[in-house]
User: What shape does this take?
Amino acid sequence: MTIIDYVQTLSDNPYFGAGFGLFGLGAGAALLRKGMQIGMIMFRRHYMITLEVPCRDKSYQWLLQWITHKGAKETQHLSVETSFEQKETGHIKTRYDFIPSIGTHFFSYKGNWVRVERTREQQTLDIQMGIPFETVQLTAFGRDKTIYFNILEEARQMALKKHEGKTIMYTALGSEWRQFGHPKKKRPVESVVLETGVAERIINDCDEFIKNSSWYGDRGIPYRRGYLLYGPPGCGKSSFITALAGELDRGICVLNLSERGLTDDRLNHLLAVAPQQTIILLEDIDAAFVNREDSRAVKAAYDGLNRVTFSGLLNCLDGVASAEARIMFMTTNYLERLDPALVRPGRVDVKEYIGWCTIKQVEQMFLRFYQSSGNKTEEFAKQFAENVMLQKKNVSPAQIQGFFMFYKNKPDEVLNNVSHIWDLT
Assistant: This one.
């Protein structure tokens, strides 16, 4: 039998024909499925654009809130996020925010349909945040990335609007900054009464620094500014920095150099990743470092493991790897205890003394505190300030304010009990 005869015999066999037909259908279906997969991949690659936002990214929570409020109001699959909001009166109100749950959602943005897929890895934890690792993936038709830039910018603006008129405090947690407490209502600069000209000099210097970044770059000067406020306790150093942050529309990153576990590397990292538009505050710098000439004090200051070294701090302030576009404030009650290397120009550019009350300060504080107490307020203020100065004792704004609080509705009794200022505080 020839090969042709053998093939003819097989083709006449009904079982073989049926099997060959099924094989052909299967092969055709497989090829069609593979072709569709390749076609879908090519279509997604050339005609769809995808954005993935991990939970570690700063815009993650902004995006979830934006999707809820702006994009996917009609979704029925939600997760709750409970927070607490502090009113101007100090009252704490519980707040419930609904955000898209784990799964797939769709919404329309400026005529474009966007697919949202929120996923959670149950077996993987974000080490920094201590929560399951999550991602949000946005998919839209087209090749223009502008749609995602617009979405993220709207989400950022919406998040900023929530904190408009407030000052956000940050504290270091591990290798990142976390918001500390509730956003505070901005404190007016006028509410912190300092000696004439001090507040104005610092504010003007900060404004000049912020508006002239190119001046520094053109001259090869590192774009950073350091301030040192020194003086007795209770005289308004920290209060003024809080008010200044509100005036400059910035947050405050509070860093404790005495924190156990804070190392040179971690300090350098924290300064480099500090949130934008913030002031870095190192309070009571003298408590962490002292003059190197006092060998016994130095030994005590550096005693223990995992502490920031003095040379490490200096490198963070103006070393090769130090961060730029930074405003840093340091405070101390004892200027003489600080090493000259710490307060030299380039590390501390502006030093201001915030001291005991002058007669003008006391008078202004009285006027501000009892501003609605009648026509004799100015006369009372002048008399009260003169009586305080006659005591020939140093008095801080904190002591004056505490005394006013004791007689908050009785300005006339304040005049008759001036000597009690030092008894009450």
